[in-house]
Design brief:
The protein is an alpha/beta fold. The protein is built from 8 helices and 19 strands.
Length: about 350
């Protein structure tokens, strides 16, 4: 065990409440969620920031010593990578996202360039035993209980926002809906249930008016999968419902055909029944049509409204409505109409 001083701490490690002075060791369990200290080796001009626990973005430079968490990623417009099978001090791994997820990069998108290379410095230790100097490998899942097996919404309406892929307008739709509901004096909770750890979206939802927001990272999960997506969605919804909001906004990150478990959520009858409304975000009319067909034929879901870049102008809206028979409403330019299409009257959303 030895002391190490960190320059920056990634937001993915928030559950561990790290300080900049940590203790590390040279043995690595290599489990998803393990907190590892690394040194940044190269410079980048794109995708070159790290989200801190506060939500601030900090530019990374060669020599920066940071703490992140091991995890996997399979992003269409970013990096794909996996947790290493073994690690030793001096090994080189990669920063897979700006939330601080570390792993072995296997492919990437030209839009983000080559990933940061990171020299492994040590396994960060946690000291959970009062009065003891014996540390254990820190993991973001420590102190997080098991996921819920049943759903208990107490009749709280839930708006689920799904997309055809990443960057299809899901978060923009959530922000617009949160803003409109909050403006109409409704108590809004928000959550993000699939994807790779990054707090940016739920912090933006709080800024838009959500009185409470949660992400799967709060439950000790770095990256969601088909195995945990349904359980963590029940857990997020149950926790958000406890404070008796008038409506819950739930963003299902990534896309309908991604690897992060959106399909596993929609496969569950209790979760489908708990969704008062489903909003589909799509990049173009073909994606809107395909997403509508997929939702209807695989899950028996007809979206309440379609939004996203496919609805950025009237030509797109006409094509979407003609081919899907679903209202097409842009989240940025017609927020009030979007809110009405999603839940109708305030009474339908549970407002007084």
């Amino acid at each position: 065990m030895r002391a190490l001083s960190l320059d920056k701490i990634a937001s993915v490690t928030l559950n561990c409440a790290l300080r900049k002075d940590v203790r590390v060791e040279n043995e690595f369990p290599c489990r998803e969620g393990d907190v590892v200290a690394v040194r940044i080796l190269n410079a980048k001009t794109t995708y070159n920031t790290l989200e801190l626990p506060s939500g601030r973005m900090s530019t990374l430079r060669p020599g920066d010593v940071i703490a992140g968490a091991l995890g996997h990623r399979a992003a269409l417009l970013g990096y794909a990578g996996h947790v290493p099978e073994k690690l030793a001090v001096g090994d080189v791994i990669n920063l897979l996202n700006i939330g601080g997820v570390l792993g072995i990069c296997t492919s990437g998108s030209p839009s983000v360039g080559a990933p940061f290379e990171c020299e492994v410095l040590g396994q960060v230790l946690d000291f959970p035993f009062v009065g003891s100097r014996k540390g254990i490998p820190a993991n973001i899942s420590h102190h997080c209980g098991p996921l819920d097996e049943t759903l208990d919404l107490a009749k709280t309406p839930v708006v689920a926002v799904v997309g055809t892929c990443m960057n299809s307008g899901k978060t923009e739709a959530c922000l617009s809906l949160v803003h409109e509901f909050a403006r109409s004096n409704q108590k809004v909770s928000a959550g993000k249930s699939t994807g790779v750890s990054l707090r940016r979206d739920i912090l933006a939802m709080e800024d838009a008016g959500a009185f409470e927001a949660m992400i799967f990272t709060d439950l000790g999960i770095v990256t969601t999968s088909k195995q945990n997506a349904a359980g963590l969605s029940r857990t997020l919804l149950n926790r958000l419902a406890k404070n008796q909001p008038d409506v819950i906004l739930l963003e299902l990150g990534d896309g309908l055909l991604g690897d992060y478990g959106v399909d596993a959520i929609l496969d569950e009858a209790d979760l489908r029944a708990g969704f008062t409304s489903v909003v589909l975000a799509a990049n173009d009319p073909v994606a809107a049509w395909g997403g509508t067909v997929l939702l209807r034929e695989r899950y028996g879901i007809v979206p309440s409204v379609i939004t996203g870049p496919a609805t950025d102008n009237r030509a797109g809206c006409r094509a979407v409505e003609r081919e899907t028979n679903v209202p097409a409403i842009n989240a940025r330019t017609d927020r009030e109409a979007l809110a009405r299409a999603v839940l109708g009257t305030k009474e339908a959303a549970g407002a007084p």
